[in-house]
Structure formats: C-alpha cells, structure tokens
Amino acid sequence: MTTKLLVANLSDITIKGSRRIKVNDLEIAVFRLSDDSVLAVENSCPHKGGTLAEGIVCGTAVHCPLHDWKIDLRTGRVQEPDEGCVTTFATEVDKASGSIYITI
Amino acid sequence: MSTTKKLVLIGNGMAGVRAIEHLLKLSPDSYEITIFGAEPHPNYNRIMLSSVLAGGADMQEIVINDWNWYKENNITLHAGHKVTKIDTERKKVISHLGVEADYDAIIIATGSNPFMLPLPGADKEGVIAFRDIHDCEVMIDASKQYKKAVVIGGGLLGLEAARGLLHLGMEVNVVHIFNNLMERQLDEPAAKMLQRELEAQGMQFLLQKSTVSIKGKKRATGLVFADGTEVDGDLVVMAVGIKPNIELAKATGIEVNRGIVVDDFMQTSIPGIYAVGECAEHRGIAYGLVAPLYEQGAVLAKHLADVETEGYAGSVTSTKLKVSGVDVFSAGRFDEAPGTRSLKIQDDVAGTYKKIVIQDGKLVGAVLFGDTTDGSELFASIKKGESVAGREKEILLGISSDLLGQGGGSSRLESMADDEIICGCNGVSKGTIADAILNKGCNTVSAIKSCTKASGSCGGCKPQVEGLLHLYAGDAVGEVKEGICGCTTLGRDEIVAEIQRMRLMSTAEVMNVLDWKNPEGCSKCRPALNYYLGMLYPEEYVDENESRITNERFHANIQKDGTFSVVPRIYGGVTSPAELKKIVEVAEKFQVPLVKFTGGQRLDLLGVKKEDLPKMWEELDMPSGHAYGKTLRTVKTCVGNTFCRFGTQDSMSMGIRMEKAFERLNTPAKVKLAVSGCPRNCAEATIKDFGVVAIDGGWELHVAGNGGVKVRATDLLCIVKTEDEVMEWSSAFLQLYREQAQWNERTAQWVERVGLDHVKKALEKQEDRLALMERIQKTLSLTTDPWKQIVETDELRKNFEQLNGVQPVQI
What we know:
The complex is a heterodimer.
Chain A: E1 4-9, E2 17-23, E3 26-32, E4 38-42, E5 56-58, E6 61-63, E7 70-72, E8 88-93, E9 99-103
Antiparallel strand pairs in A: 1-9, 2-3, 3-4, 4-8, 5-6, 6-7, 8-9
Chain B: E1 5-10, H1 14-26, E2 31-37, H2 49-53, H3 67-72, E3 76-79, E4 83-87, E5 92-95, E6 100-102, E7 105-108, E8 112-114, E9 127-129, H4 133-145, E10 148-152, H5 156-167, E11 171-176, H6 188-200, E12 204-207, E13 211-216, E14 220-225, E15 230-232, E16 235-238, E17 242-244, H7 247-252, E18 260-262, E19 273-275, E20 280-282, H8 290-304, E21 318-320, E22 328-332, E23 341-347, E24 352-359, E25 362-369, H9 375-384, H10 392-397, H11 401-404, H12 410-415, E26 421-423, E27 428-429, H13 430-439, H14 445-452, H15 462-473, H16 475-479, H17 492-502, H18 507-513, H19 525-536, H20 550-554, E28 557-558, E29 564-566, H21 577-589, E30 594-597, E31 603-608, H22 613-620, E32 632-637, H23 651-662, E33 671-676, E34 690-695, E35 698-703, E36 715-720, H24 723-740, H25 747-754, H26 756-763, H27 766-781, H28 786-792, H29 794-797, E37 807-809
Parallel strand pairs in B: 1-2, 1-7, 2-3, 7-19, 9-16, 10-11, 10-16, 11-12, 18-20, 32-33, 33-34
Antiparallel strand pairs in B: 4-5, 5-6, 8-17, 13-14, 14-15, 21-22, 22-25, 23-24, 24-25, 26-27, 28-29, 29-31, 30-31, 34-35, 35-36
C-alpha cells in the first residue's frame, strides 16, 4: 500500500536546503535542489544515523553532517568506498501551485 | 573448464573467504560456491574487533565483504548455519538447520574457539571470551551497567580486550599466570616496559596468579586465586588462548592432531577436503595470526584453480600489539637459547628497547618496544635468512644507509618478494599493490586503498604503501597535483588569485569558470570558496548559508544523536550571578539533559532539539558564543592583578577587550585566544592561536600554539608595552592569517608551513600592521549576532522547524 502525501510548498524550503517531515515513526528529509526539483530520503545516514536534512547539498547529493558520507539523493546509494543505502521516496512538484507530494 | 565443480566452504571467516577471493580472481567460473557461516554476519575482519572495542571503528566498518559481494559473485551464503555433518558417501554437507549442499571439494575453515578455563563458576553470567562480534556486544553492554572487569590472560588478546574495556570506562584488572606479560612474544625487559606503559594508561595487573574459581551467585562477582586472595569483577573475560576447531573434521574421520592435519597444498587426509586458517595444522604448527592464514589461502586457491604452486612451506610470524600509545613488535626467536647471541639497547628515558637475536651469523629474532619503525625491516631479514655477519651493531643501532634514506627504506621495498604482505589487516601483498600502480593506474595512496584495500583498516602500513607508490609510479606521483578537493586540481593560492583577477562573486561562478568536475562542488570546496570570497570582498559578497558547514548553518554544534548544543558568549570567562541565573532558568525550562563547563571557560547546554534552538536563544538573550564555527571561539583569561597576588597586569579586561573586538570574525579555522596575567601563565596562553602573557611593564605576544590534535607550543612574536599595541598586533596577525591561510588550516599549521620569519616580516612595519588592522575592522564592522538575526527573521527561523501539516491526498 502506498500513500501519497501533500507535505509542503516549494517556498517552505530554501534552495539547496532541506526540511524534515514526520510520518508516524518515519522521519523524511525533503530536499530542494538548485533546479527547484525535490527529492526525499529517509532522514538517517546508513553509517551512524546522522540527520541528512542538515547536510550540505551538492548537485543531487547530500553530505552527512556527522562523518561526511556522500549520499546520492536519487538512488539513496552511498558513494564509494563507503557502502550503504537509504530509502528514497517518490516526489512530485506541482509547478503551478508549488505543492510538494511524496509517496510512501 | 568444461564442467563446473561444486565447492563448499565451511566457515565464513577471514582465512576461508580470503581463499575464495583468490580463487575467484584466478578462475572465476570453474566452481559453483556455497559458504556456510555459523555467525549471522557477512565476512568481517576479526582482528579489528579490538578497534571496535577501543572505539576506533564500528561494526559496519570492519565488514570485509558485505552481503552484496556474495550476490555479485554468485555465492550461496548460509549465514547463521553451523555445519554439523559432512557425508563423504553422498558427497553432501549438512547444516544444523537441515540445509544440504552437494560438493566436489570442501574447504574447512572453521577457525578456532577460545580456550575457556574449566573453572568452577565458568558458567556464570558475565563470563565471556573475546572472540566474535557477540562478545564485543556483551562487553559494551556490561560497561553500561557494571564498573569492574577482570581479564584472565596477559597475552596479546587479553591486553587488547583490557584496553577496550578501559576505553569503555571500566576499571580493569588483568590476571596473568606468568610474571611477564606477553611471555610468548616478549622478553623480560620489554614485558616490564609494556607493563609500566599500560599501568600508566590505567590498567592494573595481578601477575603470577592462578585462578581457582569464579565467585558470585548467578552472575560472576570476581575471582579466587590459588594463594587465597581474591579480586572483584562483574565481567570476566577469558583470553588465555585459542584451540583449533576440529570437531567436524574429527567426526568426519579426517586425521587431526591439535589441528586438522594438512599437507603443503592444504589437503587433509581425505582427498577433496582441504583446510585453511586457524583450524589447520601444517608441519605441526597451527597458526593464529593473519599473515600465515592468507599465505595458506593463496596456495590453496592456486591449487584449486590448477595454477602451479610450490606449496606452502610454513611461515615465520611477527606480532604487533594493537593498543594505542604502545608500540610493541616481536618476531622469530626472542629467547636467548643456547647457540644464539643477542644484542640489546634499553633507553628508559625515551622508553625504548630493542633486542636482536643472532644465530650462525643470521638474524633469527627481534623484540622492539617504544619505537617499532625497524620492525618490518628486521622481519624481512629474518624471513630471508640472509647473513648479517659483521653488520650486527649496525642493525641494532638502525643506522644503515637504507634507514637514513627517504621513504622508509626504499631499497628494502625494492628487494622485497612480491608475495610479501604489506597490509596485514587486509592481506594485501607487495605484488598486488605494485599491480595496482603499474597496471590499474593508481597514482595516489587513496586510489591504491580503494583498489586493493591496502592501508584501509588500521593504516599502519601507509608509509610502506607510499614508499611503493614512489618506487613504481616514480615521476607520475609528482605529476598528480592535489587540488583543494576532488573537484579541482587547483590549489588555494591559484583559486584565490583567479577569484581576484576575474572578480568572481559567488561559489557557483568560481566553480563554473574554473571548470570544477562536480558542478556544485562538494562539502570541502564549497565552504572553502565561501570563506575565500567573504574574506576578499567583505562588503560585496553575499554569504551563502547553503555553502556553510552544518554547524555554521545552524549556529550550534551538531551532536552524534542529531541534537545540538548551545554555548552563549561569556566574555573572558567572566560572568555574573544574574547571567548565570538566566542560563540556569533557560536550561531548566527547556529540560536540557546536560550542562557542562567547557574548556574555554563557559557553559555548554547539550542535547537541545533543533526546533528548540531559536526559542532558547531568544530567552537567553545573550550573544552566540560561536562554539561551533571557524571563527573566534574564546578568550581564556586568568584573574590577573585584579585579585591575584602574582598578577602583573589586568588580564581579564585585556581578554574581554579582545573578545569583544574579534567576536563573530570568520577565520580559516577556529581561533582560540588567551591572556595570562603573569608568566605563571594560568590561562595556558602558550598553546593558543594567539596568546598574551603579561610581564612586569608589558605583554609578551605568542602565536600559533595548539592544544588539540597535535600539541604545539607557541612561538614568541614580540613584546609590547601597552594594551593598544596588543590590539594592533593581534588584529594584524589575525588578518594576515585570514588572508593567507588555507581554509581549515589552523594558525599552527599555517605558521609551520610559511615559517615564523615570514609572519614576522609581514608584521614588521607599523604601516603594514595598521593596514591589516583597518581591513579586519572593516570586516568586523559588517558582522551581526547570528542568534539574534535568526530569532528576528521568520525566513531563517523556519529552517529549524519540522514541516507540519502533512496530509494524505486521494490518488
């Protein structure tokens, strides 16, 4: 079962920034990239659980604030030589209204 | 190969999997491989367990091959399955959960079991071995509930376990039956030096004690010794040795002695069944160290792949103790047996000891303590069995021309055999590294690391890897220009010059114009560029919050659990009852879990949730202490002549004046200041970036000290008479540092790099100092308190809140 959620408006997130949402026990980091696209991943680094929402966003990747692991926000994969993966969530942005939707 | 044969590996440990890795390289398609492992984990680096306990690595970091590796190589893995039977008639292997696998060949790599002393009470709760991940977990859990631990066994394993337990905050007693620690590797002088060093680290020893029973009811509470004495302990770790795990082989009818008996090709008494690693006994020896296991694995892999091999001829082993702050090395025969002669140097001042043992003109053994840099060289000579006649003293003193040469003896690296192991943690041979450099285009240590794993674990072999890099890559190494990060080949000075030349005004512009590999940079270059641009154009450049490191973006220090800490500024460490009351009230109101005095004379409120930060700042109504950024942190002061009978100047007001002048200043790395009121230097000014020490009638100005990673005492810059001069010189020094240092480079590293003379010269003329001072004042005049700014600006404040109002929509 997947659920589609309206989570925010584009204007709620600064460019190359991120905001957190909580759905039940799941914390998701929602990123707004420099081209105004939006990607969402579980807000926990596979290394030591660092909160990815606080990391530096470079292109389509985020660097975890704790130990600088680099995670590709599109695939959730950690860049080598580190290894691991975070859950990604499908996102959708309504260009006209700026509404951001996430499917979990 | 026409048909695929079925190979079953019993034991998912280092030795067996290593053999499989080798086999896959030599002959990837000739076998269909199935692995059974009793532990519910993928293959991990058992020798790194002590690092896990010591806090240097976590469980994930010690995994050698993760689950994907098995998949990618089409290996069927049954983790958590203990093999209970080998049916040689039906050619099947059967696990305790009933899983069966057919085989044409079997590798038994069941390793060894810890030897548990059969003491009364050994079955009590809290009595464990130190062997696998589970033992580590038990130790970590125990350290949270109990205080005292006892380790039985003063050998390699016992000491590493004890060091780990100390690190976990436990009181540790090590019980050893002999008078000397590590008696199988060390002679008495080295053992005593080791003991002294470990005692200094907090370990306690009970030597020549024979344990007769473990006391306690349900849980162990301590040990009773043969002499009637006792010791308390809620956790008892037995680390007295290991015994090869031969049960399965024995039940199958394979010839066993202490271990599973194998020939030079690791073949057991039953054709098609092989054994490697700690469970195997070759020419009467069952090895328990990693290098021989890898050598055995390599021979077996070649044999299975039908590649010609001379077979395994046994190993000479060396030992290194992996305990931080203690360097011990031992190889070959260290005892002074008849027929041997030994040479020794003992230096109790430096805490070093070196002994070499000679027999028939050849080096047969060595023990090193304190300084083990010669270890690999000595070990190579022992293995080679070369004649050292006439060179004994030279070897003892370590003054051969090789040793004086660059790069840790490059000619020794050159003469080393290709199959000699360089990286003991990952079993990487010289040949593998050479191949990576020569044939796979690796031209940096990090490239070699990601290609071969050499130097990827403890890092102890990095100098040798570097040496090999220079040996094989030669000039190619010099050509590899390291930029400020992987995104560019340009260095700091080139980038700053280009920014100035083209008047670039944003990080995006810089990255675009200078052809960055990653269009949006990385976590290293973006904050650096943001700093350089702000330093060059304090008025025009718009600071990019999104290019700042996390702590600077949230104006708080992120902690490991994702909470933050709040440190308000307390100028010069001087506060008042009213200010303290306010801090206390805020801490209580927001239920701050931990309040701590910092090393910089202020208060740290730790464990604050991100969304509470702006609210707390608002209620505190104090300036940010900037305890999180690359900026001025604190100005530590002593009481000075206001109260102290030795004080010669008013250090407190001098310090407060400096802190008020320089607060909020962006710098390449953090900057710490201190002012002491007399040469007794209670504010420890001589390990600060800029330290001021009052003398009668003036001030000494010290620079480039560091009390952190690498302690460095300051250099004396000059002596001045007035407070205004202190301000002039400190302003000029800090601005020079701002303008010239690399981002993330502390003053200590910067001054070491450019030289004190360079700094002195740049600050020599008063007109230059005044110009620098004017520039720093300009920059400072443009700063505002970040906490106040966030509290007052909704657009900034929102980033601290979680998004609410998440609502489901109909699809």
